[in-house]
């Protein structure tokens, strides 16, 4: 009996599943024909499916609001999008259509917000949370933005030193601030205290000494951030409860404090067998906050989340063609793709991030274990089971086949362009691939447009300073 790739997937996972299905033996992504996109745009290309962004925002809001209602919770929920995950205008514009609030990380983010406001995409009443290390330029731009009428702008202080520098900026406004609590990071080999934030055992005294009676500032928020995200683990709940206890203690001292910011985001699907109970986690968060506030007789805070990867990650993908099949020894087969993995999905190389890897065609072929290699000269430009603790199983094919094998890495919408430096100079001068935007019109019809063509040698020469003559 033939063991096809389709048989493997069908027996190993629930398939079809959300976002993935077959049409005429070709993979589709949220109903979009990838075969059509390949025929139209060639390969490689990356694309972003904009409707998925709104789906993620609505899903989270619904779950939080349902948990708030079920628990008779008195605070409100606020969804913030982290611009650092994907700065492209079409991405942020899509998120803003769903009335998200914004979280910034650097000075230039303020210019981005002012640009969106000028275009009429973002009103001055929108909540803006300012994170990241605050250089003097960053602080001055935030204060200037507040003076322009952004009344819901909150500076989350990363250190006492930042607070002192903030006070030196001349303004007639009472500046809204938050405090970031440093946490114990869960590293691979040991725990260590994060460089980000103020030690939790210093915050109460810092508030009493410098903030409580200071007429220049108003404390609105306590913020904490777990880098590994919101997960049902003893580590996460330990840091969460430490932050919640601090909030309750701080609230007893501060009249204006009314916001608890959860920081780190939800995980996204990185394999077909992914399981995560979002509803359970959200209900547990609401239940714990309500219980702690009720027990200590303090007002339940508004809850903020800063979801970047969760908002845009599952909307992105990148499609490659397998150029060559190399048999290096009796047990090692390589599929060489037509770009570099280091350049296009750098998280897979740098932090061993996983993405959903699927073939676009040849689902009826038998399958085998292979390594995926890029075309750069670097030996690390590969994707295989050793580094990713998973077997890379893909359809076998013959080099004589009329149609090559196409593969896609899915849920790559967050960080990959930012980390790789979109449109810049890449390893071995391998160009950034074509960038396609996919949307739906009012009738639900699919619209695909080219945002940027594949990077040209002229683009590279302009950056590198060569005279093309």
Write up this protein:
This protein is of the alpha/beta class. It contains 16 helices and 24 strands. The protein has 2 domains: 5-49 and 317-464, Lyase, Ornithine Decarboxylase, Chain A, domain 1, CATH 2.40.37.10; 73-307, TIM Barrel. 33% of the residues lie in helices and 24% in strands. Strands 4, 15, 16, 17, 19, 20, 22, 23 and 24 form a 9-stranded mixed sheet that branches. α4 links the parallel β5 (77-82) and β6 (101-104). The chain is globular, with a radius of gyration of 24 Å.
Give unreliable regions as ranges. Answer: none
Helix run count? 16
How many domains is the backbone divided into? 2
The largest pleated sheet is described as:
9 strands, mixed
- The structural class is alpha/beta
Strand fraction band? 15-25%
At CATH level 2, the architecture of the largest domain is Alpha-Beta Barrel
Find the count of extended strands (DSSP E, 2+ residues): 24
CATH class membership of the largest domain:
Alpha Beta
Classify the fold: give the CATH topology of the largest domain: TIM Barrel
Give the distance, in angstroms, between the N- and C-terminal Cα atoms.
Answer: 61 Å
Shape: globular
Give the helix level as a range of percent: 25-40%
- Overall average pLDDT: 92
The CATH homologous superfamily of the largest domain is named Alanine racemase
**Radius of gyration (Å):** 24 Å
């Amino acid at each position: 009996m033939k063991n096809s790739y389709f048989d493997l997937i069908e027996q190993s996972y629930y398939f079809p599943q959300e976002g993935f299905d077959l049409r005429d033996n070709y993979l589709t992504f949220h109903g979009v024909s990838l075969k059509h996109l390949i025929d139209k745009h060639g390969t490689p290309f990356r694309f972003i499916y904009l409707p998925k962004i709104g789906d993620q925002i609505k899903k989270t809001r619904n779950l939080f609001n349902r948990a708030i209602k079920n628990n008779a919770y008195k605070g409100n929920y606020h969804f913030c999008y982290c611009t650092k995950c994907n700065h492209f205008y079409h991405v942020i514009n899509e998120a803003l259509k769903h009335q998200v609030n914004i979280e910034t990380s650097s000075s230039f983010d303020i210019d981005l917000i002012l640009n969106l406001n000028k275009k009429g995409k973002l009103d001055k009443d929108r909540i803006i949370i300012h994170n990241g290390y605050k250089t003097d330029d960053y602080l001055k731009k935030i204060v200037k933005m507040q003076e322009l009428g952004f009344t819901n702008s909150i500076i989350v202080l990363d250190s006492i030193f930042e607070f002192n520098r903030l006070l030196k900026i001349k303004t007639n406004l009472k500046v809204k601030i938050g405090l970031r609590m440093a946490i114990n990071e869960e590293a691979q080999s040991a725990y260590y205290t994060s460089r980000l934030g103020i030690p939790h055992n210093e915050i109460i005294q810092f508030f009493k000494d410098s903030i409580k009676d200071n007429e220049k500032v108003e404390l609105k928020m306590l913020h904490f951030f777990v880098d590994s995200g919101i997960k049902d683990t003893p580590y996460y709940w330990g840091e969460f409860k430490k932050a919640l206890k601090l909030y309750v203690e701080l609230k007893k001292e501060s009249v204006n404090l009314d916001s608890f910011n959860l920081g780190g985001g939800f995980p996204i699907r990185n394999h077909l067998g992914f399981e995560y109970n979002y509803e359970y986690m959200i209900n547990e968060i609401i239940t714990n906050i309500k219980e702690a506030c009720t027990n200590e007789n303090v007002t339940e805070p508004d809850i903020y989340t800063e979801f970047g990867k969760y908002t845009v990650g599952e909307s992105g993908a990148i499609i490659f063609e397998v150029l060559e099949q190399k048999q290096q020894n009796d047990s090692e087969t390589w599929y060489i793709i037509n770009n570099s993995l280091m350049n296009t999905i750098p998280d897979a190389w740098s932090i061993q991030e996983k993405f959903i890897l699927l073939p676009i065609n040849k689902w009826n072929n038998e399958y085998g274990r292979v390594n995926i290699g890029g075309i750069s000269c670097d030996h690390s430009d590969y994707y295989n089971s050793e580094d990713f603790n998973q077997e890379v199983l893909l359809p076998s094919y013959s080099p004589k086949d009329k149609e090559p094998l196409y593969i896609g890495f899915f849920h790559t919408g967050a960080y990959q362009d930012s980390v790789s430096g979109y449109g810049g100079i890449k390893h071995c001068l391998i160009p950034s691939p074509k960038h396609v935007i996919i949307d739906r019109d009012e009738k639900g019809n699919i619209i695909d447009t080219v945002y940027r063509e594949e990077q040209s040698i002229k683009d590279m020469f302009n950056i590198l300073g060569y005279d093309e003559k």
